[in-house]
């Protein structure tokens, strides 16, 4: 919130810190991005993806460390300067009026953030909740589903650990049964993947957990097709959208899922410690709250929000992240992220000893892809990339693979450095 505006609201006795009170353009850099989008005019997302001048202006909105090239945006991403400024300003403003803010203003501001996020995600604000991350969102669902002993949950070995252990805990406590698919998904086409899930469904199957983007490889799974198939069999679907939200342009209802969780600090470039939970309205009543609650009706999404006192200033800065993403445009963002990935993959794919594990088709991958060098341990490749070339990556635990997660601020020069480094390492 701009200082002059804050003073105005103070004088007016209105302490709202939320989006309505924030200045339209919180920073010069965001203004420049906005001006750059105007220059793009009607250019298609694919044409815009090639406009380096535009993406330089996007890069200018970030304060990036010159110490290394960051290709590990999968854990969490930097916020643009305008976003981190908003966090700091709101933290200070709340610190001046601490309990007063929490008691008198928080509810209104949170409602406003819900409305903004719901509209960004394409759903009703009665179906979404602000959380701290995907782990919290999906634990609320997995731990709260009303399952009986013997009921089956179906998920793949490539699901994220926090969700697997939540289902395993339910098996240990209550005797639900986990049916775990061990599919070679990188070498299967989407129809084969959907068919494999269908084949694994039994009369006891109640729920499927599936990632929209697999964290190990970046592979995009056909979640909508899996949801449609599962619904025909009377099975509900939880989608782990940790890597997909604000990375792919899909709105949550496009996926036809019953439950969805994502971390906003990953591809949405929002404050660290922000997440989203979506539950289709008619399903809310079917899920027990994780934290005891008596304040809301059993069909209210707010019954899941009873987490105690938390740093509200993080969520308040979501308005800024939404504005940043909307200024760029999600279709444009998705096209650029895919272009960046293709840029390095195309230059490495035929190099001797180099293996790219992730499917290359446009609908099966976007920003994230994996690469390895035959005969070399991925941890050694990761270390060599950092120690010799100052390129930061991670071995995600997929055999032979180093995961490459660039971002919208990545420029071709950095990709060229990476390609040259990999060629050198593959030749040793
Ligand atoms: C697929 C997937 N799900 C969930 C998570 C957990 O995210 P968070 O730690 O933000 O809850 C991750 C983290 O990388 C992930 O890759």
Write up this protein.
With 428 residues, the protein is an alpha/beta fold. The chain has a domain at 110-322: Type I PLP-dependent aspartate aminotransferase-like (Major domain) (Aspartate Aminotransferase, domain 2, 3-Layer(aba) Sandwich). Helices cover 42% and strands 12% of the residues. The chain has 16 helices and twelve strands. The protein has a seven-stranded mixed β-sheet with strand order 2-8-7-6-5-3-4, sandwiched between helices. Helix 7 packs parallel to helix 13, helix 14 runs parallel beside helix 16 and helix 15 packs across helix 16 (412-426). Pyridoxal-5'-phosphate (PLP) binds at residues 133-135, 160, 162, 211, 215, 240, 242-243, 263.
Structural class: alpha/beta
Mean pLDDT: 94
Largest sheet: 7 strands, mixed
Q: Total number of β-strand segments?
A: 12
Bound compounds: pyridoxal-5'-phosphate
Low-pLDDT ranges: 1-15, 19-24
In terms of topology, how is this protein built?
Blueprint: H1 3-11, H2 28-40, H3 45-48, H4 52-59, E1 69-70, H5 81-96, H6 98-104, H7 106-121, E2 128-131, H8 134-144, E3 152-156, H9 161-174, E4 177-181, H10 190-200, E5 205-211, H11 223-232, E6 236-240, E7 259-263, E8 275-279, H12 312-316, H13 318-328, H14 330-348, E9 354-356, E10 369-373, H15 378-389, E11 391-392, E12 402-404, H16 412-426
Parallel strand pairs: 1-11, 3-4, 3-5, 5-6, 6-7
Antiparallel strand pairs: 2-8, 7-8, 9-10, 10-12
The chain binds pyridoxal-5'-phosphate.
């Amino acid at each position: 919130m701009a200082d002059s505006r804050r003073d105005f609201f103070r004088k007016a006795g209105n302490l709202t810190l939320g989006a309505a009170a924030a200045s339209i353009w919180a920073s010069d850099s965001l203004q420049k991005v906005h001006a750059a989008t105007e220059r793009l005019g009607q250019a298609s997302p694919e044409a815009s993806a090639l406009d380096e001048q535009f993406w330089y202006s996007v890069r200018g909105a970030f304060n990036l460390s010159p110490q290394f090239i960051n290709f590990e945006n999968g854990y969490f991403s930097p916020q643009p300067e305008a976003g981190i400024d908003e966090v700091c300003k709101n933290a200070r403003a709340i610190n001046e009026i601490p309990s007063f803010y929490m008691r008198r203003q928080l509810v209104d501001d949170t409602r406003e953030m819900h409305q903004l996020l719901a509209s960004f995600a394409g759903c009703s604000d009665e179906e979404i909740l602000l959380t701290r991350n995907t782990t919290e969102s999906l634990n609320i669902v997995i731990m709260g589903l009303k399952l009986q002993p013997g009921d089956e949950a179906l998920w793949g070995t490539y699901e994220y650990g926090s969700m697997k252990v939540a289902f395993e805990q339910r098996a240990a406590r209550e005797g639900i049964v986990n049916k775990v698919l061990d599919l070679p998904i990188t070498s299967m086409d989407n129809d084969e993947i959907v068919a494999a899930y269908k084949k694994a469904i039994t009369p006891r199957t109640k729920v499927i957990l599936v990632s929209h983007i697999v964290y190990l490889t970046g592979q995009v799974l056909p979640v909508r097709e899996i949801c449609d198939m599962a619904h025909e069999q009377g099975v509900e679907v939880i989608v782990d959208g940790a890597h997909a939200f604000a990375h792919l342009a899909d709105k949550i209802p496009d996926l036809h899922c019953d439950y969805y969780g994502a971390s906003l600090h990953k591809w949405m470039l929002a404050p660290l410690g922000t997440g989203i939970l979506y539950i289709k309205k008619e399903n809310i009543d079917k899920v027990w709250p994780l934290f005891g609650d008596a304040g809301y009706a059993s069909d209210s999404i707010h019954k899941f929000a009873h987490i105690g006192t938390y740093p509200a200033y993080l969520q308040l800065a979501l308005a800024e992240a939404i504005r940043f993403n909307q200024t760029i445009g999600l279709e444009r963002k998705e096209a650029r992220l895919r272009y960046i990935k293709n840029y390095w993959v195309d230059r490495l794919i035929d190099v001797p000893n180099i293996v790219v594990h992730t499917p290359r088709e446009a609908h099966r991958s976007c920003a994230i892809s994996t690469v390895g060098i035959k005969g070399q341990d991925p941890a050694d490749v990761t270390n060599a990339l950092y120690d010799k070339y100052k390129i930061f990556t991670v071995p995600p635990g997929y055999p032979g693979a180093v995961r490459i997660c660039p971002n919208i601020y990545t420029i071709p020069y950095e990709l060229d450095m990476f390609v040259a480094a990999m060629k050198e390492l593959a030749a040793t």
